[in-house]
């Protein structure tokens, strides 16, 4: 009897280990960790490049990086909107150098040679691959136009691949820690209805971050920190989440949370603590129940 009890106790402990590890990571990242972003500002000439920074999460991250003393390169496809953000950032951080990178991340032929020339010689120590998103389709995958699917994959997956490929070697060669971030989505683990193209693109980034992190840490022994930033609801102006709440932070609050968690030594991170709890809950419930919760919580786009 004693042997059976010992075996059952050992089995319970073994099955509990992933949950204990997850709880330990949660406590470390959200209760104990202090912001270390300053260690990634190697000199007064250090830049952070934030894609999709003309609005939303990207703009929030850029704001916080400027508050922390970084020069920034803000990317977007609308020069006029970027100029407005640039003025905000220059007011926020006196003496901060703010540069623009204008490119449509969803187009088929991006001028990568031109982008390389624009970034040549800059000490980029933080790369935030944030550009992304996709309208919520109202029809099944096969009824969606292939052109919109391809544009979504280019925006959410291929653009960050190209940009990271362009900058990674340069960042690795710098004499200090650097960071590469990929803004993810809970859709990579629990796909919303009809959003296969978006969900698989975020899953692609999730695996890319894992592979790059492994290479940098274990094979190259570099000081490049790679994070996949797991994101759930954030207040937006696109008709999906228009008000903030305890589980839906505004973009600036979320941007502060993202910057704070850089360097936490955890590859996949949930900067907003409520999102971390939500993710744990999704893992804990069965697939059918998780899908049912997703269907009930799925927001509707305006006009539907």
Automatic annotation (TrEMBL):
* Keyword field contains Signal: yes
Keywords assigned: NADP, Oxidoreductase, Signal
Using the UniProt record, give the first listed, main subcellular location.
endoplasmic reticulum
Keyword Cytoplasm applies: no
Species this chain originates from: Calocera cornea HHB12733
Q: Which family does it belong to?
A: Belongs to the short-chain dehydrogenases/reductases (SDR) family.
GO molecular function: any one? oxidoreductase activity
Which Gene3D superfamilies does the UniProt record give?
NAD(P)-binding Rossmann-like Domain (3.40.50.720)
Q: What is this protein called?
A: NAD(P)-binding protein
On the tree of life, the source organism's domain of life is Eukaryota
Q: Which terms in the GO cellular component ontology are assigned?
A: endoplasmic reticulum
Q: Where in the cell is it found?
A: Endoplasmic reticulum
Taxonomy, top ranks, is: Eukaryota, Fungi, Dikarya, Basidiomycota, Agaricomycotina
Which positions make up the signal peptide? Answer: 1-23
By its UniProt entry, which InterPro entries does this protein fall under? NAD(P)-bd_dom_sf, Sc_DH/Rdtase_CS, SDR_fam, VLCFA-Steroid_DH
């Amino acid at each position: 009897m004693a042997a059976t009890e010992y075996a059952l106790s050992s089995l319970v402990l073994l099955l509990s280990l992933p949950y204990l590890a997850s709880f330990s990571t949660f406590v470390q990242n959200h209760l104990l960790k202090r912001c270390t972003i300053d260690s990634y500002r190697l000199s007064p000439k250090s830049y952070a490049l934030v894609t999709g920074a003309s609005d939303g999460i990207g703009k929030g991250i850029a704001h916080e990086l400027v508050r922390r003393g970084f020069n920034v390169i803000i990317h977007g496809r609308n020069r006029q909107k970027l100029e407005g953000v640039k003025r905000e950032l220059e007011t926020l951080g006196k003496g901060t150098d703010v540069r623009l990178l204008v490119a449509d991340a969803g187009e088929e032929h991006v001028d990568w040679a031109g982008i390389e020339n624009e970034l040549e010689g800059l000490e980029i120590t933080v790369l935030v691959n944030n550009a992304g998103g996709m309208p919520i389709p109202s029809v099944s995958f096969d009824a969606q136009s292939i052109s919109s699917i391809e544009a979504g994959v280019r925006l959410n997956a291929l653009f960050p691949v190209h940009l990271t490929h362009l900058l990674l070697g340069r960042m690795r060669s710098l004499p200090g820690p650097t960071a590469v971030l990929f803004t993810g989505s809970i859709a990579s683990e629990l796909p919303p209805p009809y959003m296969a193209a978006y969900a698989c693109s975020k899953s692609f980034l999730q695996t890319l971050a894992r592979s790059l992190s492994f290479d940098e840490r274990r094979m190259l022994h570099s000081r490049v920190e790679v994070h996949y930033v797991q994101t759930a609801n954030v207040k937006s102006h696109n008709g999906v989440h228009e008000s903030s709440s305890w589980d839906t932070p505004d973009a600036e609050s979320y941007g502060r949370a993202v910057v704070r968690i850089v360097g936490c030594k955890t590859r996949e991170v949930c900067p907003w603590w409520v999102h971390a709890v939500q993710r744990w809950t999704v893992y804990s419930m069965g697939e059918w129940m998780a899908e049912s919760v997703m269907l009930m919580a799925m927001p509707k786009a305006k006009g539907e």
